[in-house]
Specification:
This protein is an alpha+beta fold and 181 residues long. Helices cover 45% and strands 13% of the residues. The strands form three sheets. It has a two-stranded antiparallel sheet. A two-stranded antiparallel ribbon has the order 2-3. It starts with a helix and ends in a 5-residue tail after the last helix.
């Protein structure tokens, strides 16, 4: 609920109807439930897994998916930005695989939810979530939006992101409001 409040505040008070969050420990389970997700490795992970060489198109196992999505240090340039690009690639491939599975089996949404429920936090009831997942199989997915802003290192040594207020306002208006004609 605190994240919902923080996002609502970031997005200038926009209402958030529902939320779902998955603990990162669920990546392996998600990947297995999808039947593996195929990505082309743009970074070298061989120090962590010898099968994960740069340039390889690989259908990730559960542990490999977690390595691919979570690793930052000792991978590529070690930046969070590079890790976020890999996360986007994984999300795109996982969404395509989930959509394919949902089109092939109407009951797959329930299997997916039940297999992930130990890793999920949501305010949706099981039936609503399953219906939303099933309906998503035919969605045309818009690209992920990246906020404009500055990446800095905080006093505590951790990475911080500070959104550009003007760009954020323009983005909120573009995404959440319709022009009056």
């Amino acid at each position: 609920e605190l994240t919902v409040e923080a996002v609502r505040n970031l997005l200038l008070g926009i209402d958030i109807d529902f939320y779902i969050a998955m603990n990162l420990d669920g990546i392996s389970a998600l990947n297995s439930l999808l039947g593996g997700v195929t990505v082309t490795l743009t970074d070298d992970f061989t120090s962590l897994d010898p099968e994960m060489a740069v340039g390889t198109a690989l259908t990730l196992t559960g542990d490999q998916a977690e390595t691919y999505v979570r690793s930052r240090m000792n991978v590529g340039d070690g930046t969070n930005r590079a890790r976020m690009e890999r996360q986007r690639a994984y999300i795109d491939a996982a969404f395509a695989k989930a959509s394919q599975n949902l089109r092939a089996d109407a009951g797959y949404a329930g299997v997916l939810f039940d297999g992930l429920k130990a890793y999920l936090q949501t305010d949706m009831k099981r039936g609503r979530m399953i219906n939303e997942a099933y309906e998503s199989r035919e969605y045309a997915r818009a690209p992920i939006v990246t906020l404009e802003g500055a990446h800095t290192e905080g006093a505590d040594g951790f990475a911080e992101f500070h959104p550009d207020a003007s760009a954020l306002r323009r983005l909120v208006i573009r995404l959440f409001y319709d022009p009056i004609e």
